[in-house]
Amino acid sequence: MVMSLDILGDGFDLHCGGQDLRFPHHENERAQAVALGREFARHWMHNGFVVDAEGEKMSKSLGNVSNLLDLIEVFDPRAYRMVLLQSHYRSPVSISADGLEAAGRALAGLDAFGRRIVGLEPVEPDAAVLDQFRAAMDDDLDSPTAMALVFDTVRRANTALDSGDESAAGPLVAAVSAMLTAVGLRLVEADDVPEDVLAAVARLDAARADRDFSTADAIRAELQSSGWTVETTRDGTTVRR
C-alpha cells in the first residue's frame, strides 16, 4: 500500500493481482489507505490462476511450473499470447502443449491471411466491426469474444477476396489489422521469408503459369523438404513455417 501510494499517487486507476489476494490482502491494503485518509485504487482486476493440463494450479511447491523461456524455445511466443487472449482473465488459464499447438495453428491461419493481403490498398477500417471489438474489450476485458470477432472478420474478408470483391474486403482487412495491433499480435508476412525462398516461390508460380507442372512440383518438394508449408491458390503461392 505504501509503495503504491508513493509511486502512483492517490487515486490511481488500476490495481491487479491474483484471485487468492482479494481477501484479506487487497481488502487490508484499501483499509489501511482509507485509515490514512488517502484515496486508493479506483478499479481492481483479479486474475484466475495459471493451471496445468490437469487443471492444477501451477506452483513451485507442486513442481508443475512451465518455464516461459523453455516454452518459447519450442513454441511461437505469440502462441502463448494467443492462449491468454482466448481465456478470460478471471478464469483459469490452462497452459499445455495441446493448447499451445492449437494456438499455433490459429496463428498460422492469421499469418496466411496476412500474406494474402500484402499489396491491398489501405482503406478505413469497418466501423461496425471496431465498435463490436471495443464493446467486448470494455465488457470486463472480454478478450475471448474479441478474438472470436477477429477470426470471424478474417473469414468474412477471405470470402470477399475469394469472390474478387476487394472493395468489400478492404475495410474488413483494415479492421483485422487494427484489432490485432490492439492486442499485440504481429502477423508474419512475406517480408519475414528469406529472399531465396521468395525467389523459389516466384519460379514455382512462373512454372505453373507455363503449365510446367513437373518443375513446379519439384520446386514445391524442395521447399517442403526445407521445412516450409507451401499453399497455392488462384492468387498465387505462399509459404510459411
Strand content: 5-15%
| Series of H and E elements | HEHEEHHEHHHHHHEE
Q: Give the biggest beta sheet.
A: 2 strands, parallel
Strand order of the largest sheet: 1-2
Question: What does this entry look like structurally?
Answer:
- This protein is mainly α and 241 residues long.
- The protein has four domains: 2-47, no CATH class; 50-104, no CATH class; 107-182, Up-down Bundle (Four Helix Bundle (Hemerythrin (Met), subunit A)); 193-240, no CATH class.
- It is 56% helix and 10% strand.
- The chain is built from ten helices and six strands; from the N terminus they run H-E-H-E-E-H-H-E-H-H-H-H-H-H-E-E.
- It has helices at residues 2-8, 22-35, 68-74, 77-85, 97-116, 127-138, 143-162, 166-182, 195-209, 213-225, and strands at 14-18, 43-47, 50-51, 93-94, 229-233, 236-240.
- Helix 6 runs antiparallel to helix 7 (143-162), helix 6 (127-138) packs parallel to helix 8 (166-182) and helix 9 packs antiparallel against helix 10 (213-225).
- It is elongated and about 80 Å long.
- The model has no long low-confidence stretch (mean pLDDT 93).
List the helices and strands and how they pair.
Blueprint: H1 2-8, E1 14-18, H2 22-35, E2 43-47, E3 50-51, H3 68-74, H4 77-85, E4 93-94, H5 97-116, H6 127-138, H7 143-162, H8 166-182, H9 195-209, H10 213-225, E5 229-233, E6 236-240
Parallel strand pairs: 1-2, 3-4
Antiparallel strand pairs: 5-6
Helix pairs in contact: 4-5, 6-7, 6-8, 7-8, 9-10
